[in-house]
Structure formats: C-alpha cells, structure tokens
Amino acid sequence: MLILLRRALQCLVFALCLPLLAVAQPVQAPIKIALIEALSGPFANTGEAVFRNLLWATERVNAAGGVKLAGGASAPLQLERFDSKGQTEEALTMLKAAVDQGARFITQGNSSAVAAGLIHAINKHNEREPTKRVIFLNYSAVDPILTNEKCSFWHFRFDAHADMRMSALMSVIRDDASLKSVYIIGQDYSFGHAVASEARRQLSALRPDIRIVGDELHAIGRVKDFMPYMTKIKASGAQAVITGNWGNDLTLLVKAAKDVGFEGRFYTFYGNALGAPAAIGEAGVGKVLAVADWLPNVASAPSEAFYQSFRQRFPKPEDDYVHMRMQLMVQALAQAIEAAGTTDSVAVATQLERASVTFHAQNGSMRASDHQFQQPLVVGVMERKGAPGVKFDVEGSGYGFRVVKTISAAQAQQPSTCQMQRP
Fold first, then answer.
1. Which whole number is the average pLDDT over 220-249?
2. Which terminus of the chain has a lower count of CB atoms within 10 Å, N or C?
C-alpha cells in the first residue's frame, strides 16, 4: 500500500512539472520562407530547379537543429511554394497569399521584372503593415537597377548582378585576340536591356576593335523557333554571340545554333545547365562559355564534397542544377536570425546587412550600402566529360565546364548609386 502511494505521489509531481517543462522548452512554430516562382508554364523547369536547391538548403539547417532563437529555443525552416507562372501580377497575388499565411521571408529570382514589382509592393506593404513586415531574398534577378536606383532596405540580392557577370565574361573576351565580331541577342525586358547595354559599354571600353554586327531583343518566353534568329546571326559573320538568355529561351537558341551550323562561341550568363549543354552537344565543345558564382568542376576537395552531396540528394540527371549562392543565402538568413535572436524583420535585416558566410570553402559577404552580395565568380568553357579539368558533366549530358577564369570578390565588385532609406 505504501509503495502504491509513493508511486502515485511521484506521478502527481511529474504531472505538475509538465507545464514547467513546456515553458522551459517551448515548441517554436516553423519559420516560413515563401518561394514565389514560375512553377508552371514555359519556365517551370527553372522554378523547380530553384525549389530543389532551397529545399536542400533548408533541410540541412533543420537537420542541424534548426535556427536558434533567444532563450535557447529553436525553430525549423519551412519552405512553401507559390506559383507566379512567371508573371508579375500573379507574383503580387502570391505575395499577399504568402503574407496572409504567415510568411515573413519571401524569395524569388527568375525574373528581374517580377523582382522589381515585388520590391515595390513589399516597400508599400512594410510601410502600411509594420507588424507584418517581410524581407525579400533575391537569388537570381540580376538587373543592376535593383541594388542601385531601386535599392531597398527590405531587398537582399545574393547573385552577382548583370554588370558584374558581364565584367567576368569580358575578362575572357579581352584576352581573345582572334575575336573581331560579336552579335548581341537577349530577352526584351529589363534584364535583357541591361545585359545588352552593358555589353556595348564594356566592349567599347575594353575591345573597341571588336565590331558589333547585330544587336536585338526578342519577346521573353514566346519564341518557339530560333532558327530565323540563328540564320541571321550566322549570315552576319559574327564570330561569337553574347546573351543573357535563360530557360527555354537559351536552350532553344543554342539548339538552333547547332541546327544552322553556327561555328562561333557563345558567351552566356546561364549556358552551363537547364538543357543547354545537351542541346548544343558536340558543337559546343570549346565554344560555349558561362559565368557563375560556382561550377561543379571548381578544383577543390570541399567543392567536390558539396557537389557530391547534392547529387546524392537529387540523383536524377535532369535534377543536376545546383547553385552555391542559394546555399549561402539560406546560411546567411539562418545566421542573421540567430544573431537577432528573433524573426522580427528589422532586427533580421539589420543582421543580414553584415552577413559573412562560408560554406564548403565558398564565401561571400553582404554589402550594407546596397544589399548586394559580394562573392568570387568563375568562367567556364564547355568540354567533354573526362577531359582535363572536367570530372563532372551537366545533367548527364556528357559535357561539363572547365574553369578558365576565377575572379575574386574584390575584382568582381562594382560601384553602386544606392541611396538606402532605413526604417
């Protein structure tokens, strides 16, 4: 009887302690990150590629215990999908839906026009709803204006903008004495205009001897047959093409180049994946160049370990599109939240301004004056898998990119005209 009474008292004491334990170890709600991207339509493949990268990044943070907040509590990151169909109006509708569902971190990147619309909407929202302010994390929208005239305290760009990328490509073009003529082609929206303008400016400054034999823009995401364009490019006598095209607008362009027998080089922003190497095939060996923040064949053990880890998580060849900058972006966000000890937008943004992250030997830091991430860049040339410097191919195509130029963060940086307005 005495034993039973003692056990009953022990159970009662334990039951009374449960609320105290719950207070000591609170269960934190997930920190929601809303991905607003084209997940259907002609650029759905680009949106899905982004999703895989961000999913993997958030999974790693959560596997390490989540994000630590004040008081010792931790919260997991939760990535949620919102389909913009690649349209600005749809993106703005998705922004409202994401905020209504509790997201305070918005991420997007596969259109500078959409990004500009989101920045404007977020500025207005944050002024109108100070208790529901959100931060915009941009991983790919690279129109320079977004961290210059349209810079915002709430917007952080983790990709190198178009002028930075163009400077990296020009560092290769500058040294190619045999190149005498180029054709500039791009998508007819803000980013495409920025690429074309900067290509003209830098060619004039660095290689005034190179003739621009063509310069045109086409409707974004609407051209189904690029044969007429490539026929014109071939007839122009151009030795090389400079393009910022991405998604199907790039893969269809390079496929048409193969079909018309164009023998020149492609200097691209995004020619290293999403079907482009397979589309151009053998004709691209030694001819297709791409600039990136990182490439799988960067020669270092940490880089190789990073890439192998991603392929283990996503083993299908068609899923082989990994971005180091997206991993650094999520790392920087987790670091900023932990430093702030809260998810309050002003506190997190203040910490994100001074973020400095290193991941698998890749590093970068946020520039507080304009919220433009500063990081090294590389330029690679397409080669067959197994060639010197090409251990890994792209998407099972049999072709990979050999690094031919590395640009330090200090060399890649560009001046900014941003006049940051802080709350």
1. 94
2. N
